[in-house]
Write a structure and sequence with these properties.
Helix content: over 70%
Protein name: DUF1127 domain-containing protein
Number of strands: 0
Largest sheet: none
Order of helices and strands: HHH
Distance between the termini: 53 Å
Strand content: under 5%
Length: 74
């Protein structure tokens, strides 16, 4: 006994749109993270060394700090 599965053209189109929607969502999320990283970097980079030290940061740690906060790297 053979089992055959056939899908309609509608199923194929629905699947393509679902995949495209997921891809678009991922792109928009990544764009949002990039904007957040840029904003945070801008905020931290204008602080004085003393202000950064109060936050427990050194100037050369800004980039890594921004990346870890925005992308939740631990």
């Amino acid at each position: 006994m053979a089992i055959s599965v056939s899908s309609s053209p509608f199923d194929a189109v629905a699947s393509a749109f679902s995949h495209a929607g997921s891809t678009l969502l991922a792109i928009l999320e990544e764009f949002g993270r990039a904007r957040a990283a840029k904003a945070l970097y801008g905020e931290l980079s204008v602080l004085s060394d003393a202000e950064l030290a109060e936050m427990g940061l050194k100037r050369d740690e800004i980039t890594n700090t921004v990346y870890s906060r925005v992308y939740d790297v631990r």
